[in-house]
Structure prediction request, 71 residues.
Amino acid sequence: IELTQKTAQKFPVLLTAGPNEQALVQKIKHACADSNVQVFGKEQAEDLDYFAGVLGRARALFAHSTGPLHV
Prediction:
């Protein structure tokens, strides 16, 4: 949560999550209370070309070894 809060002070933040992580992502978003934090929707994440395009425009990526890191 702290990393997201600090990053959102200077940059837009886009949170992604798998089906089992939705509650965690919402908790992080609400803890930030910042309009600079958005949640990437499930429908958008299922479109791999769209998702890869969004990631390609990112200035930085913070991820553990999951799908977004490998895209």
